[in-house]
Design goal:
Length: 362
């Protein structure tokens, strides 16, 4: 029996783990695989952590490290120390990491120093912007991993260019699995607030949480000014990430009155609103893909994206933090939605099964 320790700690990882943990629960015994989950506590409040376990029926983590927030160095260092202790206790055969957070990097470092093979889900993604902490996390993690489990052909090509071809496996995007698995659940279990939000009429769904935006006064001011301009013509619904709220308070910047500021929402309500939005306005990598899955046009408030396929297909526009570009692109998409092709660059929705097969064969 192979023992897999899964490292999770942030919202996107909870979502991805929901699909893979369900697959392990269904097929793990037959394949000789057992999962032990470790929650670092990178996201630790109810809105950003517990609600996902409740909504998605994720088994409670065996280990909760409770690391909490902090600078990149302090947070990663604390995680590394705590994860190492758990791995020495559990002696797993594989450490499974997701995406590009500090939890991802800490899990990879702790595992390889103990000579435990690492499997990296969503490997090979590149923004080619080394100013992003996420880029550093994903590059280092890929180079430490024994299995790099890739969402797209582009990711595989990126790894080939870095001399990691032998570690790369094309599995498809596990977030596609999640969207298919939970979209119907979201229809049944959406909250009254989400239903009321959608029933009020056409709207743009906006999220903003990346440090490159929220910690830069000019960028976040431009973004909020653009949202105010859009709101003159189309409702803008803004479920604010706790980090964004804190950053705005620190900068003494207010959300414009015409923008509908609401509390953070769970994954199911997010899916429910993404499907009904006219446009998604975001700096989130995951939401760019979910927009694509639900054929909702997307405007991305970043200067680059790892999900280049959505841009190449004309359904996602990179607007950076330009007030004019954000407002113009969003309103154009709202009035003239782009055509979505039948192309499926993110696989067929069976990434979790392919990941398990890859690990079982390895």
């Amino acid at each position: 029996m192979k023992r897999i320790c899964s490292i999770i700690g942030a919202r996107p990882q909870f979502v991805k783990a929901a699909a893979l943990s369900a697959e392990i629960a269904e097929r793990g015994k037959a394949l000789g695989l057992e999962e032990i989950s470790i929650h670092t506590g990178q996201h630790y409040d109810k809105e950003m952590s517990d609600i996902f376990f409740e909504e998605l029926s994720i088994p409670p983590p065996k280990h909760r490290l409770g690391i909490g927030s902090g600078s990149h160095g302090a947070q990663t260092g604390k995680m590394l120390e705590a994860i190492e202790k758990v791995l020495m206790e559990e002696t797993p055969d594989i450490v499974l990491i997701y995406g590009d957070t500090n939890s991802t990097l800490a899990g990879a470092l702790a595992a390889v120093k103990l000579h435990i093979p690492v499997a990296h889900v969503e490997a090979g993604m590149r923004s080619f912007n080394r100013n992003m902490p996420e880029e550093i996390n994903r590059v280092v993690s890929d180079h430490l991993a024994s299995w790099n489990l890739c969402s797209t052909k582009t990711a595989v090509e990126n790894l080939e260019k870095e001399g990691l071809a032998e570690t790369a496996a094309l599995t498809g995007d596990i977030m596609f699995d999640c969207a298919l698995r939970f979209a119907e659940v979201a229809e049944r279990r959406r909250s009254e607030n989400a239903a009321e939000t959608a029933e009020k009429g056409p709207f743009v769904l906006m999220t903003c949480h990346r440090a490159e935006n929220t910690d830069a006064p000019r960028r976040i001011s431009n973004i909020l000014d653009a949202a105010a301009e859009i709101a003159e013509f189309r409702r803008v619904v803004f479920p604010a990430h706790p980090r964004t709220v804190g950053a705005l308070e620190k900068l003494n910047i207010s959300v414009p009155e015409k923008v509908e500021l609401i509390q953070p929402i769970g994954y199911l309500d997010t899916l429910f609103l993404e499907k009904r939005a006219d446009v998604i306005l975001t700096d989130s990598g995951g939401m760019q893909k979910e927009a694509f899955f639900f054929t909702t046009p997307c405007v991305t408030m970043r200067d680059e994206t790892e999900w280049v396929e959505t841009v190449e297909m004309g359904v996602n526009i990179l607007a950076g933090a330009s007030k004019e570009k954000i407002a113009t692109a969003t309103l154009d998409f709202a009035e003239h939605p782009p055509a979505f092709s039948d192309a499926s660059p993110y696989g067929d929705g069976n990434a979790a099964a392919k990941i398990l097969e890859t690990l079982n064969e390895g």
